[in-house]
Amino acid sequence: MLLRERLAKLGALFFKYRSYSAVLFALVVLVFLASKRFHYRNRLDTDIYEFFCLGVSLLGLAFRVVAVGYSRGRTSGRNKRGQCADSLNTDGLYSVMRNPLYVGNFFIVLGITLLFPRLEVIGLNVLLFVLFYVPIILREEEFLLGKFGQEYAEYRRRTWAVIPNFRLWKKPQLKFNFLRVLYRENGTFMGIILGFVSIETLSDAFAPKKFRLHIDWGWIAVLAVGFALWIASRLMKKRLKALDTAP
Predict the structure, then answer these.
(1) In 3-state terms, what secondary structure has residue 170?
(2) Who contacts 164 (Cβ-Cβ below 8 Å, separation ≥6)?
(3) Is CATH 1.20.120.1630 what the domain over 3-175 is classified as, yes or no?
(4) What is the CA radius of gyration of the chain?
(5) Is the dihedral of CA 65, 69, 72, 77 positive or negative?
(6) Which of 130-134, 167-171, 224-228 bottoms out in mean pLDDT, i.e. has the lowest?
(7) Are the C-beta atoms of 97 and 104 separated by less than 8 Å?
């Protein structure tokens, strides 16, 4: 069996559990967090740097929001049992790269990882990300090539996998579907905020010399907003799921 085929087979397994990949990256941060502490020069530097990290993660969320908002029904979904695609997305962000959702995931993970700015932490998480998502991408490409044949082969030939080529930009044919985004991405936003709040709180708890638990009420307020959106989407789950399958 060729290496590409082996990786694609492994990708089928990773695809099923990709929603839990963030736990793997978070564990890396927490292990280093428990052993070492990065010191900021003052609180202002801390706030500025935290906003920078949050901006990196929100950039990743923006990639996902745009990709999902302009995607067609039963594509770019969170299905776990197997690949699913009734049509091929080739406009909007998909016109400049083949995997905008995974590029979005990369920036989300990177932003949270940067909260603990040590080269070994960042390097290890980037390596784990590549090892985890490359097999998934290969498996998806195998599926799409088998289903859409020459159409996907031509799309793959002209469009890079993860590096955007904005010269190929095509305006989305569909209107932006906010409800689809709310249904699919509310958990992503909640995960980002939980990640930032958790690491911010634990970094203070693991501060050297003494144990101290600092509660940042600004982050708590953001967490409350994210939780309210998540609850609202869960209450409307059935309705949103029906809308999500629309073209």
Answers:
(1) strand
(2) 93, 96, 97, 103
(3) yes
(4) 19
(5) positive
(6) 224-228
(7) no
Domain ranges of the chain: 3-175
Name the residue with tokens 């991405």: 185
d(CA 166, CA 93): 9
Cα 126 to Cα 83: distance, rounded to the nearest angstrom? 25
Write down the pLDDT at residue 156: 93
Nearest to 172 by CA among 75, 65, 86, 71: 71
Distance CA 247, CA 92 (A): 15
For 155-190, write each residue's pLDDT tens digit: 999 999 999 999 999 999 989 988 888 888 878 888
Q: Is the pLDDT of residue 1 over 60?
A: no
Label residues 68-77 b or e (16+ Cβ within 10 Å = b): bbbbbbeebb
Distance between CA 236 and CA 233 in Å, rounded?
5
Band of residue 40 on the pLDDT scale cut at 50, 70, 90: very low
Amino acid in the structure at residue 239: R
DSSP state of 216: -
Q: How far apart are CA 203 and CA 190, in angstroms?
A: 20
Structure tokens at 77: 């979904």
Query: What phi, psi does 39 have (nearest 5°)?
Result: -105, 130
Mean pLDDT, residues 112-123 taken together: 81
Q: What is the pTM of this model?
A: 0.83
Can you tell me the distance from the alpha carbon of 104 to that of 62, in angstroms, rounded to the nearest whole number?
A: 7
Q: What is the largest CA-CA distance in the chain?
A: 63
| Amino acid residing at 19 | S
